[in-house]
């Protein structure tokens, strides 16, 4: 999964988009959306720093977003105004391309309005979370890695780093006050989430200021440039401002622990059922009721389980349930690396080598190809207990670092080699990394507003669909167990729908959901537990993967049936990727009248 603030830069909405006339309805819509985007970049200096390379973008690198209650109110007011202004546009007067722009923005504004009015938060992928801070969210979780990697190419980089580092303490305190407010409304994480939060905050706080990666890494790079003062200043900021703010945050969460409950689902929170239905819509971009979504998960799981059974039997694995046979594969010494630093290094090397191999196969299914500006690293140790199995961070607009696949290597036995290749396809090529590259390369002059939101079903749905494409282009030739890994990965995503809706709609316990995942999907206990805990703090997001994959496959096969011999999968992929992120219903409409090429 891409990280929370990774805004994928969109390309052309349609390859055949006509040039906007000076006074056309399309031109008026474009001007309106451009103004909204400009206002958004003013509200979010972090987005401005990620997306802009001009003076405005450089200035934004010195600041963080406003996390206060007042800042949230300003964001909500802006979203409501944007929604009202967009509703004043005559959609019927727009061209087909203009209607795509309109519908995409309308969905985003609706979600920003409806979710923004409730407790919790919503990130730039329109993923809602009921808890502003969790084991997977909050500035303590997202920002340390950014600080540790801060570039030091120019003198301005050093000052930008120090200014934003000092702002970290303010942001932490703002989030602490928002958490306190939400708690007064009855919104407190369950006990097991609190335990993870407290442990991760405490681990971050326990590192001595002079040894913290947040300060030591940038200080070393600055010293190499001759800017020796950066290190002492960063250490002082950390010791005198950031660490006391972390202490205050830790104390608040510790005060919640005695009255915390164990129920995992958001149904227990104020208007929890309505909150979940909205979160499901925001993540999947479709209006499927939770109980219907649950059945979709069960049906898809059954189909994939039958396919996986056939592949396992072909390898002589016939005894036991599918889940039992998968667990046996996880323990097979042929696929395991030692739980040592050397073993972790071998896993990273394997992933990098497989990425290089699949890169050469991409022309079989794609026209625009990614640069090989990607690497594979370990998830930072300080957050790995609560982090997902892996995530992708695309290269920033200024190209100061490559794209990064971060793999959670807390224990190496979570990544037997038969699973690892599929992970690189999801996070790297032809998944998120290729997705990001096509957005950037297919139409570099596209309006900036097309990078406004990610839409989880599109972004994560593409990455899961890309796992299937990797099979089609031959990534697993002479690797039958890697092929098993690809189907098991899809099976896992179907299981996610079952357990996510189980927890939040059917009121399953955390333990019941974990048990279902282990017994039916063959997931390991440790990774299954971490995944279930993730669904507890990002309700509905786990459903976006399979919903998006199904939508891409349906759109592709409908186009193939309509176009016949004129269908070329490379052109189909170019079209849906060059369009940029959009709700899946918009993607379906966008491809219905496509004539190929």
From TrEMBL:
Residues 1-21 form the signal peptide. InterPro entries: DUF885 (IPR010281), TAT_signal (IPR006311). It holds the Pfam family DUF885. The keyword Iron-sulfur does not apply. Coiled coil: none annotated. Keywords: Signal. This is DUF885 domain-containing protein. It comes from Phenylobacterium conjunctum.
């Amino acid at each position: 999964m891409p990280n929370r603030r990774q805004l994928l830069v969109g390309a052309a909405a349609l390859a055949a988009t006509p040039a906007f006339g000076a006074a056309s309805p399309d031109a008026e819509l474009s001007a309106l959306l451009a103004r909204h985007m400009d206002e958004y970049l003013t509200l979010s200096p972090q987005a401005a720093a990620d997306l802009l390379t001009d003076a405005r973008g450089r200035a934004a690198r010195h600041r963080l977003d406003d996390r206060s209650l007042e800042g949230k109110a300003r964001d909500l007011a802006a979203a409501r105004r944007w929604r009202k202004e967009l509703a004043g546009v005559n959609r019927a007067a727009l061209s087909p391309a203009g209607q795509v722009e309109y519908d995409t923005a309308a969905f985003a504004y609706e979600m920003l309005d409806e979710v923004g009015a409730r407790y919790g938060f919503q990130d730039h992928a329109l993923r809602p979370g009921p808890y502003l801070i969790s084991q997977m969210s909050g500035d303590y979780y997202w920002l340390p890695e950014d600080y540790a990697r801060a570039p030091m190419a120019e003198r301005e980089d050093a000052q930008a780093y120090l200014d934003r580092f000092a702002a970290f303490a303010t942001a932490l305190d703002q989030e602490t006050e928002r958490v306190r407010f939400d708690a007064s409304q009855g919104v407190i994480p369950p006990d097991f989430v609190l335990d993870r939060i407290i442990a991760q905050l405490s681990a971050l706080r326990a590192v001595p200021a002079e040894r913290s990666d947040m300060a030591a890494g940038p200080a070393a790079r600055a010293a190499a440039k001759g800017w020796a003062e950066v290190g002492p200043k960063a250490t002082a900021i950390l010791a005198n401002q950031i660490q006391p703010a972390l202490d205050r945050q830790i104390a608040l969460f510790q005060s919640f622990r005695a009255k915390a409950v164990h129920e995992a689902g958001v149904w227990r929170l104020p208007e929890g059922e309505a909150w979940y239905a909205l979160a499901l819509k925001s993540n999947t971009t479709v209006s499927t009721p939770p109980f219907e979504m649950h059945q979709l998960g069960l049906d898809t799981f059954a189909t994939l389980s039958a396919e996986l059974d056939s592949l396992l039997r072909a390898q002589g694995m016939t005894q036991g349930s599918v889940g039992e046979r998968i667990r046996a594969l996880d323990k097979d010494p042929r696929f395991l690396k030692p739980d040592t630093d050397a073993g972790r290094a071998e896993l990273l090397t394997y992933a990098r080598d497989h990425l290089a191999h699949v890169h050469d196969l991409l022309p079989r299914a794609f026209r625009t190809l990614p640069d090989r500006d990607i690497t594979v690293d370990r998830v930072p140790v300080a957050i790995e207990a609560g982090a997902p199995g892996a995530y992708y961070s695309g290269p920033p607009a200024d190209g100061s670092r490559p794209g990064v696949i971060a793999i959670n290597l807390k224990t190496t036995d979570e990544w037997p080699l038969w699973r690892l290749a599929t992970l690189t396809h999801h996070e790297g090529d032809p998944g998120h990394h290729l997705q990001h590259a096509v957005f950037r390369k297919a139409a570099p002059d596209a309006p900036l507003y097309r990078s406004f939101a990610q839409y989880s079903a599109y972004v994560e749905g593409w990455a899961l669909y890309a796992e299937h494409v990797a099979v089609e282009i031959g990534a697993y030739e002479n690797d039958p167990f890697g092929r098993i890994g690809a189907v098991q990965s899809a099976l896992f995503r179907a299981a996610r729908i079952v357990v996510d809706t189980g927890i939040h709609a059917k009121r399953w316990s955390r333990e019941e959901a974990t048990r279902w995942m282990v017994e039916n999907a063959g997931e390991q206990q440790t990774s299954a537990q971490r995944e279930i805990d993730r669904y507890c703090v990002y309700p509905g997001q786990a459903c976006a993967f399979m919903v998006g994959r199904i939508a891409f496959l349906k759109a592709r096969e409908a186009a193939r049936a309509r176009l016949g011999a004129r269908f070329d999968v490379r052109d189909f992929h170019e079209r849906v990727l060059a369009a940029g992120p959009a709700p899946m219903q918009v993607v379906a409409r966008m491809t219905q009248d496509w004539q190929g090429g």
